[in-house]
Amino acid sequence: MRLSVPFYIFTLLLSFRAPEIFARQAPFTIEGHQVAAGEKASFDIPVITASKDSTFIPVTVIHGKNTGPVIGLIAGIHGFEYPPIMAMQQMARELNPAVLSGTVIIVHIANVNAFLGRSVYYNPVDGKNLNREFPGDNKGSQTPCIAWVLSQKILPRCNYLVDIHAGDAPEDLHDYVGYYVYGGQTDKARQMAEALGFDWIMKSEASFVNGVPTLYCSKEAVRQGIPTVAIECGGLGNVSTAEVTKINSGLLNLMRSLQFLPGKVEMPNHPLEITKRSSLNSEYTGIFYSDCRSGQLISKGMKLGYITDFKGNLLTDIYSPIDGFIVYQIATPPVNKGEILFSFGAL
Predict the structure, then answer these.
(1) Nearest CA-CA partner of 116 in 79, 86, 141
(2) 340 in a structural domain
(3) Which residues on adjacent β-strands are paired with residue 29?
(4) d(CA 269, CA 255)
């Protein structure tokens, strides 16, 4: 049968448009908000507590024009860790959904009250550390309620997760990426860690016991079977363009490696993988002195600093218990008994 000219032209045009038609995503819906393919939208996810100290989690969803998986980027678990928070401000502005395959969920600030209160480690509303509350409790105080919303409403929507941190206000930290060895997510998590391009990678074993809280956001994601990495970049309550750029350059390369974005994947040259960690805690409350810095190579028995009382009298000298590297250290004078002075990566 001979086709008419109009029908032939119609089928020819359809063949040119077919890949675009079939690759285009359906709208992305989360917590009552719908985002069309090729669009981005920002909104607040409410955190409702029984004690009427309710809060919210500010979120941006960037829903790509083309089909693909979902990656979650979470900042602000600790409110004084500013580089990740500022990096997500930039990422939300600049990531273009027209070239994106899949969906990016950006949690701008998980712990808004800690951010606004300039609070180190803890949420000032209830005095709890959000990264010790997972999987959370929707009948608890504000912090476990935040953890519950993240665990129940955000993490299950993700095929991949990046939990983005920095050294908190008193911490001098060497930038690194961490991932857990556990189950089927391990190989993909390692690929993600390498694609971020940091020169240090921390590998940790994960185990889970029924009824025992996971505590950490990253570990809860791993328990849910989500390939997960954690970034640590920046410290001492500071934020710089270099830190923001390092975080987002790594994330864009990661998204290229997972085929969210087009373009060449840049792979780092032989990052240092640290598989054993240890820490040194203070035996005294007082004033801490040290000339050491994060990233420094140390040897067992090396003097790292000392602690005095509030009148300047020596309480103790601090020596390295291992051969290794300083991952982070307390870099401000106050120290309380039991606090971590140094976190080490062992050789």
Answers:
(1) 79
(2) yes
(3) 34
(4) 19
Residue 143 and residue 113: Cα distance in Å, rounded? 10
Q: How far are the Cα atoms of 57, 250, 335 from residue 231, in angstroms, in the given order?
A: 20, 10, 26
Averaged pLDDT, 145-152: 98
| Residue 131 lies inside a defined structural domain of this protein | yes
Spatial separation of the C-alpha atoms in residues 50 and 309, rounded to whole Å: 43
CATH code, domain with 327: 2.40.50.100
Closest C-alpha to 105, from 147, 162, 189, 185: 162
Reported as a pLDDT band with limits 50, 70 and 90, residue 5 is: very low
**What's the pTM value of the predicted model, to 2 decimals?**
0.91
Q: Are residues 267 and 283 in the same domain?
A: no
User: 141: how many CB neighbours lie within 10 A of its CB?
Assistant: 18
SS3 254: helix
Per-residue pLDDT tens digits for 243-284? 999 999 999 999 999 999 999 999 877 899 999 999 999 999
Q: Examine the domain organization and report whether 261 and 317 are in the same domain.
A: no
Last residue of a domain, one of 254, 272, 290: 272
Q: Is the pLDDT of residue 15 over 80?
A: no
- Expressed as residue numbers, the domain containing 27 is 21-272
Q: Which amino acid is at 61?
A: V
Q: What CA–CA distances, in Å, run from 160 to 164, 192, 224, 264, 294?
A: 13, 9, 11, 20, 29
User: What band does 13 get if pLDDT is binned at 50, 70 and 90?
Assistant: very low
Question: Do 103 and 236 have their domain in common?
Answer: yes
Q: How far apart are CA 81 and CA 150, in angstroms?
A: 18
Give the CB-side neighbour count of residue 158, counting CA atoms within 13 A.
31
Helix (H, G, I), strand (E, B) or coil at 212: coil
- Counting the structural domains of the chain, the total is 2
* Residue 268 maps to a domain: yes
| Whether the Cβ atoms of residue 111 and residue 145 lie closer than 8 Å to each other | no
* Mean pLDDT in residue range 318-343: 97
At residue 113, what are phi and psi to the nearest 5 degrees?
-70, -35
